[in-house]
């Protein structure tokens, strides 16, 4: 096991009716003027926004509101939010939604705490020195942004999707009420669960040998998510299943499942970012569409690692050797993704990639042929292209 640091400062308030504590929690952070940032109409239709504003008013906290966050959140709305916050004197950002809303909120928080254009931070031209405080009311189990140090934003100019990770943006608190996820469409529930799993799988596939307890935690979390998403799809109001998914979302991306590793591979996330940046697909679905093609590409570099995953997570019977066992595990993972309605090839998302498309995606994913992605097996532009080609159909 390698040396590591584990930092999780977010105050979690988990359970039914936790939303009513939002005023108390913001007051505890000395928030005086809040931006309530949210997505589409569901937060309004469900009455959640009314509950939030009532709680803030009861605590004597003033607020402004900005909706319109879409999946793969846009830089244009981030810039609008920054301008609104500066104009209104906002000192606290409250994200009401899932990963896209939280990521957009973090970007706004960077923007109001630093001079210059916020995109410079995501484009790696500058490093942020501060971040306004952010809290969240989580409405979907997926991205894990509620307890992570990262955010991802899409720039409409070139449709570049880029991430930024610093300890500055960690949420001050995360309110998690599983009942808020009861009305999610099945596709969103499944896509979110896939996202949760991939955050752990990205960390699991490593060349580090001695992982012990961290491996056991990761394997248990993955099996728990598979069980809970299956139950939630059968009964959307299964509280225990929804609670399991919501807590797994946080544990999968707050660093716990990667303690002692090399930090993980993250190739699939980089591959998917280009897909969702260009085609606006659901992040979890996009990850499913590329995972097995990536896995079959890199598995020969360490088939024993994939064989362990096959046995411990997917429950397959060992084959004649590690390669056969590993392939059985990859097949089993594909079958699971399909069982919950997720794609395992890019064309299953309605995208018919041309040769030109795949070359463009590989070029962007390699940052215009200036980097390799991944640690398990570093992939250059040509190797990235071959994964897209394999995942196409």
From TrEMBL:
Q: Which GO terms describe its cellular component?
A: cytosol
- Give the GO molecular function terms: alcohol dehydrogenase (NADP+) activity; butanol dehydrogenase (NAD+) activity; metal ion binding; methylglyoxal reductase (NADPH) (acetol producing) activity
Q: What positions does the domain Fe-containing alcohol dehydrogenase-like C-terminal occupy?
A: 189-391
**Entry annotated with the keyword Oxidoreductase:** yes
InterPro entries this protein is in? ADH_Fe/GldA, ADH_Fe_C, ADH_Fe_CS, BDH-like
Where does the record place the Alcohol dehydrogenase iron-type/glycerol dehydrogenase GldA domain? 9-178
SUPFAM superfamilies per UniProt: Dehydroquinate synthase-like
**What Pfam families does the record point to?**
ADH_Fe_C (PF25137), Fe-ADH (PF00465)
PANTHER family tied to this protein: ALCOHOL DEHYDROGENASE YQHD
Q: Know the name of this protein?
A: NADH-dependent alcohol dehydrogenase
The organism encoding this protein is: Butyricicoccus porcorum
